[in-house]
Amino acid sequence: MPLSSITLILLIFAGIAFTVLVVYAVVLFNSLVQVKNNVEKAFKNIDVLLLQRHDELPKLIDTCKGYMKHEGKILERLTTLREHYSNAGTMDKKTQIENQLNQQYLTLAGRWEAYPDLKAQKGFIQIQERIAGLEAAIADRRELFNDSINIYNIQIERFPHRLLARFFSYVKKAYLDIPDEKKKDVKIDFS
Hints:
Layout: H1 5-65, H2 72-87, H3 91-111, H4 116-120, H5 122-157, H6 161-167, H7 180-183
């Protein structure tokens, strides 16, 4: 039985509609893959600097140990967190540990003021300058990483991306936090 012209037109229309939907789904999926890969790339860029800073921390801790006998818990916590970071398997876990490391590092930096002999030691100054340089580079990369996270999180929540994101188990990612101590105003004393 031959197909009527109306049936043929409906089949062609259905085929075109199906093709458009498939192409649209592919475009949506590719945009999700792109933002996911941008997040991973941004984290890998910052991870290199974080690992360099983590390599400098043992030198700093060894230098501080002789002077800061009363700060053993902070030094021990930094060492433990550094080891956990090295063993962390996922970007989310590394982000969480790095946020904790930042808090401990700031606590340690705040305590240096009580040790003038330590601040005058050449090795300490060199390591501190190296870490300060890494901190500046990390701050730049943190901004790029957090921007990538923001774009990713927005993308997986937007409709119709949300449908594909849920289907492929895309979940929101965590930002690298800036510790509250770094957000406070700097007080300069010229006296």
